């Protein structure tokens, strides 16, 4: 049975309890769950919940049709259930998710798809369920956060970008919507910058924009571009070489909102010119100006680029660690 809007608080509770031992927070983001179940994000998702004899939801399985050949899945199971029952419920959920992933693939006309599941490092129970369901641990991610001080929002708090580099927000029309040229530039820069990254795949422009707009924290004025001149073309117009997509993250224990960096990328030919640093400075300053106290991001712990060194240098620290688990399935017929 699929959940409805009235189930969001219980689903948020299940998700928060599963995460709390690793994130340190038991706060449920009900707003995000409502969006997944009955908001814009529900349009590309499938859900099922399992209830006990009293009608209480004990498990929730969900699948997101992310792109052709990619389905992001997850389960939350009530850990107060008997161990054997938890295992049975988890096995059923992963079998259902494999069927849904196959249906996504058929609708897209592809012969196979990748099921992409997440787990917290140290959650050996969930990791065991994933392994039993045929998933392999393929990547580790550091979830990093940086405190923001009020003075960092003042003019001159950070160095100006390198010579020839300009960082600015994506331009907006008077109605608050982004200018198409800038929006396309963000997409093109990120698609190009991530081509050689782990598990890279093509996501069409419309899918990219729609997926990010589904986030309750989506804000167009949290999108940034970096431009640089081209040394081989003296006097030429600066071109887009870096992009950052940010969003508003929910309140922490003190009630303070935060900023989250969903994506940051720089073209290979611009690396070494301070493009990423300039974008990060801009976002920190913006967060401070908004009265926020933290900026979060995710970094690939296995990446050969050494991006974590830059983040650590600028004040980010690892709050907790997550993992990606994958399983490839083939669609029959």
Provide an overview of this structure.
It is a single chain. The chain starts with 7 loop residues before the first helix and ends with a strand. A hairpin with a 2-residue loop joins strand 2 and strand 3 (70-77). The protein has 333 residues and is of the alpha+beta class. Helix 1 packs across helix 2. The protein has two domains: 5-142 and 325-330, Aminopeptidase (3-Layer(aba) Sandwich), CATH 3.40.630.30; 149-292, Gcn5-related N-acetyltransferase (GNAT) (Aminopeptidase, 3-Layer(aba) Sandwich), CATH 3.40.630.30. It has eight helices and eleven strands. The protein has helices at 8-23, 30-38, 83-108, 124-132, 180-193, 205-213, 275-289, 307-313, and strands spanning 45-51, 57-67, 70-77, 112-120, 136-147, 165-169, 218-228, 239-249, 258-266, 294-300, 317-330. It has an eleven-stranded mixed sheet, sandwiched between helices.
Quick structural summary:
The protein has 333 residues and is α+β, with helices and mostly antiparallel strands.
